[in-house]
Amino acid sequence: EGKSLPPMRGFKYSSWSPLGCDANGRCLLAALTMDNRLSIHANLNRLQWVQLVDLTELYGERLLEAGYRLCKADTPCGELGDFPEFQRRHSMQAPVRMEWSGICTTQQVKHNNECRDVGSVLLAVLFENGNIAVWQFQLPFLGKESITSCNTIESGISSPSVLSWWEYEHNNRKMSGLIVGSAYGPVKIIPVNLKAVKGYFTLRQPVLLWQEMDQLPVHSIKCIPLYHPYQKCSCSLVVAARGPYVFWCLLLISKAGLNVHNSHVTGLHSLPIVSMTADKQNGTVYTCSSDGKVRQLIPIFTDVALKFEHQLIKLSEVFGCVRTHGIAVSPCGAYLAVITTEGMANGLHPVNKNYQVQFVTLKTFEEAAAQLLESSVQNLFRQVDLTDLVRWKILKDKHIPQFLQEALDKKIESCGSTYFWRFKLFLLRILYQSMQKAPSEVTWRPSHEDAKILISDSPGMGSTEDDQEEGTSKQASKQSLGDTGKGVDIDDTAEDSLHQSGDSGGREPMVEKLLEIQAQIEAVEMHLTREHMKRVLGEVYLHTWITENTSIPTRGVCDFLMSDDGYDDRTARVLIGHILKKMNKQTFPEHCSLCKEILPFTDRKQAVCSNGHIWLRCFLTYQSCQSLVYRRCLLHDSIARHPTPEDPEWIKRLLQGPCTFCDSPVF
Predict the structure, then answer these.
(1) Mean pLDDT, rounded, for 598-622
(2) Comparing C-alpha atoms, which of 328, 329, 317, 277 is closest to residue 293?
(3) Rg for the chain (alpha carbons), in Å?
(4) Strands, DSSP E only, in 366-496?
(5) In angstroms, how far is CA 556 from the centroid of its own chain?
(6) The pTM of the whole model exceeds 0.85
(7) Nearest to 358 by CA among 514, 479, 191, 217
(8) Is the peptide bond before 217 cis (omega within 30 degrees of 0)?
(9) Fewest Cβ atoms closer than 10 Å to its Cβ: which of 117, 219, 456, 458?
């Protein structure tokens, strides 16, 4: 208060929520600052982060209303002027860690006594006194009004240091709890009673995973769901970094109850572990110490419990002499991100520290392609690290490997899922980009030139914020474990031109090749458009009695689907026949808001009236976006309109969908 101390700037800890928690279907960020303030942020617009709620302020108000007592039976608190009372109030409001749970389902009763399932997510906040506040948020999280409840649990752990969710599924019954680690050594699972959460159960009492007060602080905890090949059931592997060792605990539910097997993995590092991460796809654990050594631990099941095989990853062979400060594995295990600074040179520490984020590939191109083909997620956006490996390979070799093309064609013939069509579109676009001339300058690098021109002298008056991509001054290098050579950076956004370097003799075949690829891209896009049109028409048929009320150009979409004589889809023809019968020869066309002329449906991307007014079409509902504000997908494939209050629920649900071409969210 006296301003005698400098402001506490920076962050102690941050935690990402699961995908699908904000209004755009992306992640929320919980950030804990150095002055013990916990807040939640969201990326609502492009490159714009917004603080949605300050949980420290809300929790402080709750404690003030309760008289700084957890229950009414507690003794009345003393005066704030007493230093012990000041310490007590500070420790019960100072967060140490916070972690998000997985998305769960809650039951909500409507006014007409109907029950509907509503998604929710939990945020557990660990405080210095050992208490845990569990916040429940309704999804999508919009702010203070989305907070459903807040409950405080006493963990009984002194000097807590780390927190993690324990989520276990057994016989289609989901169990949950909170794993708390202490700076003195113990690790404990705390039951969490999730009332009104559909299908969730918890432990009857706390479970001590490690109870020795051996003064080895718990630095990090990861919980990995696995399948036990010998017991033929699911199990839960808990790993914790304790000093230079890794503590592991295998939890297995049998007819006899909860079985707990635990031990330590020693001989990994000569220095304490500074960071630990886990690949939840296969259970592989990665640890690192500050001397630049990363260990890969692979769990192998035995008849009773499990054992770990570990191998050393020497970053010095890839990046030179470096010090490591943290590691993280990408969601599908394609990359390992490492924060590094310069190491010692000639026995001397560097004068200045330059922090860099380095990327190490953990999978080969063939492994990434196979995982994308056999994926159960069937969403390219959720597997962007795998698609990045495939993209890099095609950009480098300038062709799609034959085995991948054949496997993808077989999947499309046998399954016909639109996911494989989107994957094919992704490959063709990258191939088209690789054939083009690389830009002379790296476009993401910011320009330091001050170019000033008069507006009257400029060739174009208008400009958009998308014309100039924002970059970062930090370097990010991608290097394989076995290949230390530097790759060529190629811009992600290819120009729609047919320029190609080379002599005039070799230019003609290249132009023909580009035109052929472009024709294939248009064919795949048209197929995906027709499939989504069928889905939109299905929603129209199911939810309306008179299609006039839909505001969707139903007749135009039907005519567009039937206009191509080569398109023979029996499902589409039957659906269109039912809809036309319901419409009873009515057309219900769209009208231009400027001149009131009819907007014909001749193009899936835009609508042009007879007076030349051009309106872009929403790719989710195929309505014309007759407003100055609209949404766009992350990769700028398509545009979509904003939902309006008069839209029915099924149209709002359509507008919440991802991009039909690249699976990216729209905002």
Answers:
(1) 92
(2) 317
(3) 29
(4) 478-480
(5) 36
(6) no
(7) 479
(8) no
(9) 456
